[in-house]
Amino acid sequence: MVLLMDDDDAFRGALADNLREDGYAVVDFSGVHELPPLAKLTEVKAVVTDYDMPGTDGLAFAEQFHAVHPDTPIIVVTAYSTPQLEADLATRTYLSVLRKPFDYDDLHELLGQIVLPAHC
Amino acid sequence: MTQQRSSQDAQAKPERYRELFELAPDAYVVTDAHGVVREANRAAHVLLGDHPIGTAFDARIAADQRLSFQARLGDLQAGRAEQLKEWVVSYARPDDKSVEISLTANVRRDSAGQVVEVRWLLRDATQRKRVADMLYDVAARARAIVETAVDAIITIDAHGIIQSFNTAAERMFGYRADEVVGQNVNLLMPAPDRERHDEYVTRYLRTGEKRIIGIGREVVGLHRNGRMFPIGLAVSETRLRDGPLFTGIVRDISERKRHEQRQAAQYAVTHALAESATVVEAIPRLLRAICECGGWHVGEMWQVDRESQRLRWCGMWHDPSLGAAAAFADSSRSWAFARGDGVPGQVWASGRACWLTDIAAQESFVRLPVAHRLGLRAALGLPIRQAGAVTGVLLFFSTEEREPDHDLLDLLESLGSQIGDFVARKRSEEALEQSKDRYRRLVDLSPDAILVNKDGRIAFVNNVGVRLFGAHGVDELLGRPVLDLFHRNYHAAIEQRIQQLLHGSGAVPFIEERIVRLDGKPVDVEVAAATFSDDGGPAIQVVLRDITERKRAAAQLLELEQLAQQRERLADIGAITAQIVHDLGNPLAAVSMHAQLILRRAQRSSDQPLSSILKPADRIVAEVHRLGALIKEFMEFSREQRLDLKPVNLGRFLASVVELWRPLASARAIDLALSVPADIPTVVADDEKLHRVFENLIKNAVEAIEQGPGRVEIAASVLDEERVRVSVSDTGPGVSESVEVFRLFETTKPQGSGLGLAIVKQLVSAHRGGIGFAAARPHGAIFHVDLRIRGPFG
Description:
Order of helices and strands of chain A: EHEEEEHEHEH
Distance between the termini of chain B: 149 Å
Number of domains of chain B: 6
Number of strands of chain A: 7
Strand order of the largest sheet of chain A: 2-1-3-6-7
Oligomer: heterodimer
Helix content of chain B: 40-55%
Strand content of chain B: 25-35%
Number of helices of chain A: 4
CATH class of the largest domain in chain B: Alpha Beta
CATH architecture of the domain at 21-79 and 88-104 in chain A: 3-Layer(aba) Sandwich
CATH topology of the domain at 21-79 and 88-104 in chain A: Rossmann fold
Low-confidence stretches of chain B: none
CATH superfamily of the largest domain in chain B: GAF domain
Structural class of chain A: alpha/beta
Structural class of chain B: alpha+beta
Number of helices of chain B: 21
Strand content of chain A: 15-25%
CATH topology of the largest domain in chain B: Beta-Lactamase
Radius of gyration of chain A: 13 Å
Largest interface: A-B, 25 and 29 residues
């Protein structure tokens, strides 16, 4: 199961549709306020989260999630880049990064490479 | 000759002798030894009025003289006297006329020595007696005059010895007549006349040169008690048989002198005051005048110091012959008398003059030791008054004891108030002069140009003004029409201001004008003006400040500000770029996802129903719209704000904005209310820009509530004379006041760009207005916009 978090409904919806077309099970949230306790998310095999969301710090969420599920790969998508962001990402090797807008195939490839058997 | 012949005849012929006896011009009577008339000649009969022969001669003599007659006759008979000489008796004639008869008698005796007859020579003494009586009367009258005369009358002889000394002289000089008659008159005069008087007299007698006789002069008399006093002396000379007699008429002129002195003092004081420009200058002159006129040797002035309520020494004058006066001044300078302390303090407290015959007897005289060194004895303290209050004290000292002179006191007291008035007047004059001086100095030192406009022409201009107008000297400007020096474009406004000044306002604040220097170069100035009146009528004082420098500085500042704004804009561009990347990135990512979905669906199976791509295609269109709106916002923000100003009717304007939002608001059950008072003034603004401002604010308010019921209220009000306020309040959740809502990209809304309020603020600032927000009660936010009624430049 892929956990998808982005405050942009249009993007999140389109990405979720694409993933489902490819047979992924997807749970999507617009922010951390919608999340159940992290410990319950044992089914999640990969996380795709936006970096900058109103009321939600994508990086902080990624760190917390990684603390609970250290083996689950996390992919951060972001629309822009700042030196701070680059530094943050560089120190967290468990993170993968995709810059918006990106090709769905790039994500699909990344998910496939990392872990996920299709249709998991 | 006749006598000689008759005696010859008598001897020759007894008859002729008889005739001669009868015809003699003198009256002869012959009586017997007892006084019975035996013979009388014709003259005797005429004189006596036919005295009958054979009657007693004394029968008609005045009764009181009759005994005396008998006694004298007896003396003649007895030989105790041989003759009677010119004895005057009163004789009563039968016709009742009384005659004075001078009797001379001799007796003829017989050989036995018996008296044979008495021969009487009678002379009419009536005339003589009358003269004698008259002389007596004259003398008596003269004596009476002399004795009762007010003037002293003293007679002296050629040796200066006093012959007579009348009652007035006794009073005047203090001697009794019997004490001085026979003494030299010089005891009545002091040195140096005393030693020289004999010399004066002898010189006169020798040369006949009159120095005083018939001229009269003022000299000094010496009273028995040693007091000297001024006298007027007139001397006349009478030549008597035994030498000259000098009569001196002496008048005590102390009173007149005093009067003169008083007048002189009054004059001297008035003169001293009139001549003095300042109080400091007047004090010694004044003291000197009073001292010299009143015979004082030291004069000092004390003034009440209002703050400390002490009398302080403020100047003195002393007779140049007094040595240690400086020491006295030094000692006096260190004193400050409280009310009632010492002699000056007593005069101050009582407000009355104080006369000390001798300061040695005065315990309250605290400066006694040093005063003693100067030999000061008598003292006089006088209050100086001004409007009834004592403002100072004058003190005078004499090296002699002096008895109080009430006339002098009266005079000096009246001078005291004259002096007080003078001091007060001078002090205010000095204060006025000082303030004038200060004003002059102010004008001189003023960094601003100052000129006086009198009847449209320059009546005065200070040095800064001369420089400002590019003149070489004041003369180049004086008398010039003021308007000549101002730029043509300002003439109408200046004339209007002048009228405004002259008819009411009195002063007008600084406004910018432009002058034209003499060399034709225009200079920007700031001008303020005020009216004033002097002796010559109303005038306008104009203050000009060269603002070329300031204008340049302001321009520079503006440039700097623009530069700073540019930099800020560059910084903004950096932020905007990042934001654009973010804001455009998301929709683009969404568009891309949808497009890829469509693509993949189409690729995966060509027979997919078109409906499967309908949703993503629809989303793409929506996202592209979103992108377009975003771009528009950016464009607005980045667009340079040029204002197209015109009067805006706020009521109508706000209503039009509100109407746009009414459909959406009512759809969300939000009540949209507008309240604008009828008297709200028209505001000068760019209505399009204002439209965006209020559209934004109302949109924010509606979006804050999201879903009704709720209320958005737009209200206008007059804030003050220059500004109106429009507020937009909502009943939404409110905004924390710590949020910098107007900062670029600051947003609390999930889909907010953070541009809206930043744009609003920029537009309001462009109008030089104000914007702010606060929490509304019980919840919600209230935004207000303050606009200048006369527009950003009004």
